[in-house]
Design brief:
three-stranded antiparallel sheet, globular, Bacillus phage protein, alpha+beta, about 25% strand
């Protein structure tokens, strides 16, 4: 879905988060659907990756984003929780997102940041 900010928290949004991280959806013989980095070896069973609905899941996203060089800015406002990600060492956030539930906000902000980065990749130079 193009406008993830309109998606409700839940499995569909969690799947968008996994895809934004570059994970590949796989079918596992005994466990059902899962997520993989290489299309073969599972890293999560699909229904156990729940970043938009649980703090444990949101923590997994924060850790993965930090591993990739991102930092989270999280603020409680009068209208809800505001979140955005920015590159480590830079205080220019990608896109802020505000809602009432922290894990949901973190998931949306991560997807928006990863998509913004993909939209603004520098062109490859001819060698």
């Amino acid at each position: 879905m193009d406008d993830v900010s309109r998606m409700p928290a839940g499995p569909e949004l969690d799947a968008e988060m996994a895809r934004a991280l570059g994970w590949i959806e796989i079918e596992m013989k005994y466990s059902g659907a899962g997520w993989s980095l290489d299309g073969v070896h599972p890293i999560y069973i699909q229904d156990r990756f729940t970043p938009s609905t649980t703090w444990d899941g949101a923590g997994q996203v924060i850790e993965e984003m930090q591993r990739r060089g991102w930092e989270l800015a999280l603020n409680v406002t009068g209208v809800g929780v505001a979140a955005s990600f920015h590159r480590q060492g830079s205080y220019h956030p990608f896109k802020f997102f505000i809602a009432s539930y922290g894990p949901f906000v973190i998931t949306i902000a991560a997807i928006l940041a990863l998509r913004s980065e993909a939209d603004h990749e520098p062109p490859e130079l001819d060698k």
